[in-house]
C-alpha cells in the first residue's frame, strides 16, 4: 500500500495500525475509527461516514495485502458499532466487502470476516433482513468450511441471524425461497445440516407460512433424508414430520397436486427410510385430498403396487402401501364412468394423465383451483366440488397391464392388480370396455399362474367382462388365432339353427333360458379363447382345468358355460383334444358340487331348455364314447345308452377306451348315481338300464372293475320275488318314456359319424389305412 496516499479522514497512525500484522495494533486502530465515526454521527456528517466506509472497503478490505484486509474488516465492524441504530443506512456498503472475504483462501481471514459480520449484524438486528439472501448465501458456504474455527464462528453468526428472523415479522419469504430451493440440493453434509436447521426455524415462526412453498423444497428434503449422517437424517425426519402435522391441521391450504409426483418418485427409491416416509405422506395425501389425487393414480399405482409384494423385512412399507392402495381404490365411484349413451364402441380420446398433469401444476387456472378446494376433509367439502375431477383410465390400465404382464412380480402385487381391474369393471364398466381387447390376452395368460388365489381373482375379472351389460357391443374385437377368426354371428350366443336337434320349431337353440342371466358378446369369445388355451397348454388343462371350470360355474351360469363349450367343441378340428376336453367336462359335470343344480336339471329333462341342453352336450360328448354313455345314465336315457353300447362292438377297443369304461364303473358306485342303483330294484320298469350295465360288463376284461360291476348286478333281485298282491293287480308300468321332442335316431347317427371321424384320424396317424373297413357303418 502506498504510504503517501491520502486516506483522510483516517489519520496516518490509523492507516499504519490497520496494516500492521499484529492483531492488537489493528484493534487499537479500530477503536480510533469507532471514535472518529461517532463524532461524524454526532455532527450528522453522512458524507464523511460514507467516505470512511468506502476507504475501509476499497483500500483495505478488498486490498491485495492480507494484513490490510484484516485491518479493513475490523475497521468496518468498528464503523457499524459507532453507527449504532443508524448502521441500517449503510448496511450494503458494510456487508458486501465482508462477504467477499468469505471466499478468501486464508482461513484466518475468513474467520475475521465472520467475526466482523457478526458485529455488524448484532448492531443492525432487524435492519439486515433486506440483505438476508446474501447473508444466507455466505453462511451456507461457511457452514461447509473445512476450518473448525471458521465453522465455529459461522455457527455463532448463524444463531444470531436466526434470533433476528424469529423475532421479526418483516422476513421476505418469497424472495428467499428460490435461494433455499437452490441450496437444498447441496451434497455437503454440513451445508445440508445448515439448510435443515433454517427450515426448522422458519417453520417455527408463526408469521411465516412455509407450507405454501413446500412444493418448492419437498424434493430436496427427501434427498437430504437419504444422507449418510444419522444426525442429518434425524433432523430431516423431524422437519418432514412437522410439515406433515401442519398439513393435517390445514389441509385446505395445501397444494397436494403440486407435490403428488414428487412423492411418487420417492416412493420408488431403494432407500427404506425415504420410501417409508414418502409412502406415509402418500397415504395422508390420498386420505386428505381425496379425488384431487385421482389424476395421479397411474403414478401412485406404479409406486405402490410393487411394495405389496414385500416380505417381512419391509413390513412397515408394505402395510402403508396397502392402505394407500385401498384408499385410492375407494376414490373411484360409478360417477367416474361415462354416460349410458356413449357406448364402448364409440371411442373417445382420453388425454393421458402424464400429459395433463404438468399443465395443472404449472397454471393457476380455475380447474387447478378446484383441486385445492377438494383437498378439504369430507366434512368440509361440498358435493359439487367432486364433479370437475375426471378419471382417465388410459394410464391406469397401462400400469395394471404392465404389472400383470411381468412374470417376476410378486403374487400379492398380481392379486392387487386383478382387484383393481375388477373394481374398475364394476365402477366404470363403459370406460373399461374400451380397454378390454388389450387386457384380454394377458388375463387369459394369467390363468397359468402358479397361485390359486391369483387364478381366482383372474377368473372374477374375466367373469365380470363376460357378464357385464356394458360389454354388449356390436363387435367385441377380433379373436385370437386364424382358426378362431369367427364371423360376427359366432361371437354371439349361437343361434337355433346351429343346434338342429329338436323337432320343435320354437326352440331357442343355445340361447340362455329365461331363468338364467344373459351373457354379453365377450362371453362366447372368452369360452373360445379358454378352450384354445387348454388346447395349446395340455398341462394347464390337466392340472388347473377342472379348478378353472368349476370356479367359472360359480361366477357365471353353469348352463351357459357347458352349452357354449359343447357348441365350440362340436367344430373342433383337433379330435384328440376334443375327446380329452369332453372327458374333462364330463368328469366335472358328474362329480363337482358346484354343478348340483345343473345335474338335477339334466336328470329329469322335464323342460324344453333341459332337453335342448342335453342334445347340445350329447353331440359334443360323442367325441368320447364312454362319456356319451355316462351322459345318458345321468339323464336316465337308459334305452339309448344300451343302443350306444351295442355300437361299441364296432369301435376300435383300446387300452384307453377300457380305462374309461373302468372309471365309469367306479363312478356308478359313487353317490352321484345313487338314484341309478336304486332303480335296479325296479327290474320290470328299467330293463334297458340292466342291459346297459351288462353290456359294460361284457366289454370289460377280468379286472377289479369287472368284479365290482358283476357283484352289483348279482344284487339285482328276481322280479318274481318282488311281486306283491297289489303289484299283481296293478297295471304294468313301463320305464320313463323317451322325450318326444328329442330325435334319438338322429343322435345315434351323429354318434356313429363322429366315431368314424375319430377312427379315420387314428388310422391316418398310425398309417394303418387298410383297417378302415372296421368303422361303423351308417
Write a structural description.
Belongs to the VAC14 family. It is found in: Endosome membrane; Microsome membrane. Pfam families: Vac14_Fab1_bd, Vac14_Fig4_bd. With 778 residues, the protein is mostly helical. Among the domains are: 1-168, Leucine-rich Repeat Variant; 391-469, Leucine-rich Repeat Variant (Alpha Horseshoe). It contains 40 helices and no strands. The termini are far apart.
What key phrases describe this protein's structure?
778 residues, Leucine-rich Repeat Variant, rod-shaped, mainly alpha, 40 helices, disordered C terminus, 0% strand
Short description:
Helices cover 64% and strands 0% of the residues. With 778 residues, the protein is mostly helical.
Strand content: under 5%
Mean pLDDT: 84
What about the largest sheet? none
Give unreliable regions as ranges: 342-387, 475-517, 730-735, 768-778
Give the CA-based shape.
rod-shaped
Q: So, CATH architecture of the domain at 1-168?
A: Alpha Horseshoe
Distance between the termini: 128 Å
Structural class: mainly alpha
The name of the CATH topology of the domain at 1-168 is Leucine-rich Repeat Variant
Q: Please report the number of helical segments.
A: 40
Share in helix: 55-70%
CATH class of the domain at 1-168: Mainly Alpha
Main location: membrane
Region (Disordered): 334-363, 467-513
Domain Vacuolar protein 14 C-terminal Fig4-binding: 538-716
Subcellular location: Endosome membrane; Microsome membrane
